[in-house]
């Protein structure tokens, strides 16, 4: 990043503070890539005025991507997406007896015209990486960090492959 450039910034909005322990990996991943992240608790159902105000003001607050984590009825991502044109990534949380399938379906079944990108149930790290990919369109330094990250993952898999092959041969 060049002097005077602002750090990329995303919002991680969750419907309940009980979601935060599962979202800590998202925050850590974003910070590892040098992305500023603000975490908030805003409920689409219990604080709809705050959800509206947040989404309407998100761009002016400097956010470039919104991550929205919710379980159960999981309308948070869709509600936020209805009030902004910036990318919204839904993170379905496994908060009910349905283990997050209810949340997943409410996010991926958005009506035409109001898209919500959605990751796997509890997919905090993938949500962070998708946000970094979106940001990398504007922030070239993030593109190289993603390339480096994938190289590290590749090296790790190659090493595990060798270890498993050796263990199997020793049996």
Quick tags:
15% strand; alpha/beta; 171 residues
What's the helix and strand layout?
Elements: E1 9-14, H1 20-32, E2 36-41, H2 48-57, E3 65-70, H3 76-82, E4 88-92, H4 101-108, E5 117-118, H5 124-135, H6 140-170
Helix pairs in contact: 1-5, 2-3
In short, what is this structure?
The chain is α/β, with parallel strands linked by helices and 171 residues long. Helix content is 47%, strand content 15%. A 5-stranded parallel sheet has the order 2-1-3-4-5, sandwiched between helices.
Task: Give an overview in words.
It is built from six helices and five strands. By secondary structure, the chain is α/β, with parallel strands linked by helices. The chain has a single domain, classed as Rossmann fold, CATH 3.40.50. The protein has a five-stranded parallel beta sheet, sandwiched between helices. Helix 3 links the parallel strand 3 and strand 4. The N and C termini lie far apart (51 Å). The mean pLDDT is 94.
**Helix and strand run:** EHEHEHEHEHH
Helicity range of the residues? Answer: 40-55%
Q: What is the terminal-to-terminal distance? A: 51 Å
Strand content: 5-15%
Mean pLDDT, as a whole number? Answer: 94
